[in-house]
Fold this sequence. Notes:
disordered C terminus; 42% helix; alpha/beta; 8-stranded mixed β-barrel
Amino acid sequence: MLQKLLAKCVKPPKKHLKIDELISQFNSAYGTLSTPIILCQGLEIIAINNTALLFLPDSNKLLNTYIHDAQIITQLFENPLKPVSSFIGDKEFQITATPWGVQPHLWLLEWSEQTNLNRLTEQLRIARNHDPASGALLQGSFDRQLMDHISNISHGRLIVVLLNCEQTSGHGTNHENREDIICQLVNKLSYEFGNEMLISRSEASKLILFITSEHAEEETLLLNQIHRLCKQVLPSTTYDIACAVYPADGNTIEALYSSVNLALTAAQKSTEPTLYYAQLRKNEYRLQQLAKDMPAAISSNQITPYFQPIIDSTSGNIKSFEALVRWIHPDLGYIIPPDIIQVAQGLGLLHMLTAHIMQQTMKQMAKWPDFVQFAVNVTPSQLTDELVDLVRETVRSANIDPGRFEIEVTEDALIQDFEFSAQIFARLRAIGVAIAMDDFGAGYTSIGNLRKLEFTKIKIDKSISDGLPHDNKSVAIVKSLMFMARELDVEITVEGIEEQDQLEFLRAFNCGVQGYVFARPMPAIDMPEMMKFISPKHQKTKQTIVGIGPKKKRIITR
Ligand code: C2E
Ligand code: MG
Ligand code: MG
């Protein structure tokens, strides 16, 4: 009752109020209500409404003068929202404590008299709807209430949790033990979550619960709380918790049950106690489907590079292109590159995928003038001898100038094994290909280490360029990186440029610019359109850049 009032009309104070302000707010909210309610700060009674005055004379100002049993008081405050029974004279009351507002130790206590009729009605209601052994709701009643909640939910979410605590001894399921565990779990959950959570027994060793929530963070907290609680009750038993969220995992009771059951099956694959979200199962299923389809998608060129131009900040002409893997899956739609890479890695197909992207890129390179470079990304884990062999072989069989070909690798590659990465860089440079440090600024590269590496370009990460041109810190970082690049004799490309004013700012620096402001990554078929953005002067002279690198940069005209 009080919960509904609090939720619907009576706003608890949001800031610290003085005692007289509290009393006045209490009186205007509850003063004339027919339910007896009092306001306490700890044990001290601050205000009493008219109905409560009928049995709590105003003269007593401490709660323990009415409730003599200290244990009952402890129970009341340690277990908010859960009714506790106490006698005043020969009358029995159910008292429910609810925290009020933001002030600590401020409680509203709702009193309801337990007449024989009340008690009988309550017992009948409980008997009709609850499992007598565990006290959990019967499934029919649980389903009805879940359906009611779903149909009344206007915003926010709801989580359905399936909790399996299979307790097996050497001789099969230990019935007594299981019953005991289920009862303990129901008690603990009701104690911890009160009326907010509905609990039902879905099978012998399974409980199903639901609770409303506002956002995902709240759900994580709730689930961790349930997890912790299970650990306490079941320290030596394995258990699994599966969770499905309304509306993301289903917007009907059937869909939610199906999601949560499938999630539980996934959770049970692990021998450890597991907390499993239905969303994860969906992802897993999706990744499995991608894995199944990937080999054919590579060989049929369904997985293919798109190309994004990088322009010269001063002239606006195209300098180079970056190849970015794309997969438009016929059923699952656009697959983001990190997923493609993850699946390829899981299947041991990353080498094959990279070889495919490189070959498609070489095909494109053959159509463009010699001064236009092309870059391909590799993951840090690919910095191996195998990559060096692949690059050498691909460049050789395509018969292109290695100086036109660039390998992009993110700076976190260096964290894994600096010395080994440095060797691979050197061997790639020996082939003549260029090396770009991708996403520079997003990781933790030590500037000191940079001088030990042979690379030819730094690509400043979008997280830094986003602040251009107005954020002073971003401007300072970009300027100092420009200075550093000049000193190291390497090129700079600034990534993720979306706005004209960012481009204007970079015009003063002689650097590369990559971003939606000029063009998004495009399929090979659209590439001829881009020809008009290369400088006519360059088209005639056909220059090739070779041996770019510390103090080796020179242009050879062919
Ligand atoms: P990256 O190498 O840093 O590539 C740049 C990413 O920024 C690309 O995302 C590109 O589409 C996006 N981008 C370019 N300009 C803008 C802009 O103005 N605004 C915004 N918001 N984004 C922009 P994409 O294609 O989704 O690729 C993400 C990452 O996946 C790449 O980051 C790269 O690390 C990796 N990746 C892409 N293709 C491959 C590949 O063939 N092999 C490997 N190993 N990794 C790849
Ligand atoms: Mg890149
Ligand atoms: Mg990048």
